[in-house]
Write the structure tokens for this entry.
Amino acid sequence: MFVPEDILAHFVLQRIIKKSSSYTVELDEKADRTPVELKGKIAVLDGYLNIIELQSFPIQAKKCYLRLRRRRWKEQGTDGKQSYWNDYDFAAEGTKATKAFGDFLKEIHS
């Protein structure tokens, strides 16, 4: 209920942080989401990229943020200078909101 299905297809829930005015849902990219460029090669985890934070629908009258942590990969046996990662299109154009929440906001403001 907290996270859109298209995000859950690629990410796994780590924890939910409840504050007085908001919820923050932290998710990590699934380990089996190796980038296309590394298919057929031995890929190893090489840390994480900067976290992407999106705003989603409020929950119990509190703001809700999704914090997505994407994996960074490299090919095994290389010096690690070339990194690979997956790009996702979860945000509404021109916003830091999920597509569904962005569409909702556009609809009520038009």
Remarks:
- The chain has a mean pLDDT of 91.
